[in-house]
Every structure is written in C-alpha cells, then in structure tokens.
Amino acid sequence: MKGFFLNKQVQLKALVQKPSENLSEEEAEQLAPWQTGLRKYQEVKSLQLHQERVARYEQIQELHVKKVDVATIARQVKMSRQMVYRYLHLKQPPERPHIHQAHQPILEPYKDYLIRRWNEGCRNAQQAYREVKEMGYPGTDSNIVRFFGHLRKHFNQSGTFKQVDPATQTPVQTPPKRPPSASQVAHWMTFKEEQRLDWQQKYLTQLCEADPEIQEAHELVADFTSMLRERQGERLDVWLEKVEIQSIRELKNFAQGLKRDYDAVKAGLTLQWSNDHVA
User: Fold this and answer.
1) Helix (H, G, I), strand (E, B) or coil at 169
2) How far apart are alpha carbons 98 and 255 in whole angstroms?
3) By three-state DSSP, how is residue 32 classified?
4) Closest CA to 79 of 98, 118, 97, 53
5) If residue 278 lies in a helix (H) or strand (E), which one and from where to where?
6) Contact 136/53 with Cβ under 8 angstroms?
7) Distance of alpha carbon 222 from alpha carbon 202, whole angstroms
8) In percent, how much of the chain has pLDDT > 90?
C-alpha cells in the first residue's frame, strides 16, 4: 500500500495544514507528533544549554575576580571576547529563554539580538549562530543562515549594508509541518484500532473522511488483516471479489498474487498463523 499513498501526497499534506477549529490545542498538536517530539527535544536541549551557560557565567565571574584578562578568559571558556564582555555586564546568571510556542518561529526570541549584531557590523551567520547558541538557542544554524541571507538580500544597497529596524523584521518562516510518509500511513492501516496511538487513529479517520478512495482502501486492508489474524480463510473469496470491483490498483495487484497461489494462501489463512502484512 506504500505505492497507493505515494499517489496521495496532496491529501497527506493537506491534512497536516488543515485548520483544526474543532480540536483542542492538545489534540491539534497530536496530529503532528513528529513536531511534538522535536519540541520535546528542543526543551531538553534548551535546559542543558542553560545549565552550561550558568556554569560559564560563574566561571567567567570567578576568573574576572582573579584579575584574569578578557582574552585569556575567552580562551579558557571557549567563547568570543564579545560574549565574555556580555557575561561580565550581567548582574546575575543569564535567564533561560522561553521555548517558542506552537505557532512562534524558533528564532523569534533571538530576533532582536541578531538584528542588533547585524547593525553592529556582524555579517557572519556562523558567528551569530555561535553567539545565540550560547544564549540558549536550541535550533540549527540553518535558520540563522536563512535570516542573515534575508537581511543581506533586502538591506544591501550598492554594496553598503543598511541599518535594520527590529520592529519591521520577522525571521524567515520555517518549513510547514511535514506529513507522515506513505510507508508510515500504510503501516498504520495494518494495525488493530486499539493498537494505534490516538493521533494515528485521528489522522487515519480524517484521511478517510477527506478521500473516499482512502476509505475504501482502509476498509479492505482492515478486512484482510482481520481475516489474517483470525485465520478465517473462508472469507478470502468474498474479499477477492470486493477488491475486484474496486479501482485500487495496488490492492488488485496484491489480490492477483494471492490468486496465483490460491490453494496455498487459503490453506495458510485457515490452518496456520501468518505474520505477513499487505505489501
């Protein structure tokens, strides 16, 4: 069934982007658990980075009290001198930035700082990335590179970079949530309903509601896997007839394979347990 869903990419994508007016915030997030997992990872990463920043702050303050010069401190703590100066001006350990909300770009809490660095003359996205990472930014450098590319494109006039007003700039939007793969959806269909996670069941239900052909495929796959689990080979003929009158090419091909080994397949479904899944 992977091939079937490869031809349903529009439906898979549309469901992820579809507004969820009738869902609670928690339920809406469950529609894209791969993103939820990413946010959990970012939360853990943010906490880890914050702990490291507090440790560096304490180390920098201790070295400063001992009259160690800034250049030496920067080498010891493996930070730029500018960041050392920043830490020295703090009157208390740096606070942990809030993780972005579901609809807030991950770069948003660091936008003002990045624009300030741009206005100060920093044009190196990797340098800016290292600095905001020290501040707790949990993402990758690709967002910083995109943002600096945006500034370079729109604020470079005849080779002279213009100042940027933070109030007028929004970080380049991250790509939309990705739908599950064709293989994932095909695999979920072979599960019993009680074996699926809530968000998987909700996703399949909405797919079926949005596309009658997916609904047909879902019913046929569920019927076959039930026959397989319960070893009810006597249902095979009826199932093959149902597939024949449908227009789902992948299931027709699968059925043709069963017919070629009809006696063995029926005996297997009736007499012994099989762990095979619909291809």
Assistant:
1) coil
2) 54
3) coil
4) 53
5) none
6) yes
7) 16
8) 6
pLDDT digits (tens, 9 = 90+) for 180-227: 788 888 888 888 877 777 777 888 888 888 888 888 988 988 888 888
Q: What three-state secondary structure class fits 191?
A: coil
Q: Which residues contact 263 (CB under 8 A, 6 or more apart)?
A: none
Contact criterion met (CB below 8 Å) for 41 and 52? no
In 3D, which of 276, 193, 190, 262 has the Cα closest to residue 233? Answer: 262
Spatial distance between the Cα atoms of 35 and 178, rounded to a whole number of angstroms: 8
Taking the C-alpha atoms of residue 53 and residue 197, their distance in angstroms, rounded to an integer, is 38
Using a cut of 0.70, tell me whether the model's pTM lies above it. no
The amino acid at 193: E
What confidence score (pLDDT) does residue 41 get?
A: 53
- State the number of CA atoms in the 13 A half-sphere of 24 facing the CB: 3
Residues of CATH 1.10.10 domain(s) within the chain? 41-96
Evaluate whether the domain defined by 41-96 bears CATH number 3.30.70: no
Instruction: Name the 3-class secondary structure at 123.
Output: coil
Q: How many CB atoms lie within 10 A of CB 122?
A: 15
**Pick from 137, 136, 134, 164: nearest CA to 148:** 164
Beta carbons within 10 angstroms of residue 206's beta carbon: 17
Q: Could you give the dihedral angle defined by the CA atoms of residues 169, 176, 45 and 166, in that order, rounded to the nearest 10 degrees?
A: 0
Q: End-to-end distance of the chain based on CA atoms, in angstroms?
A: 6
Please write the tens of the pLDDT for every residue from 111-163. Answer: 888 888 888 888 899 999 988 887 778 788 888 888 888 887 777 655 566 67
Burial of 45-63, coded b for 16+ CB within 10 Å and e otherwise, reads ebeebbeebeebbeebeeb
- Cα–Cα distance between 216 and 223 in angstroms, integer? 11
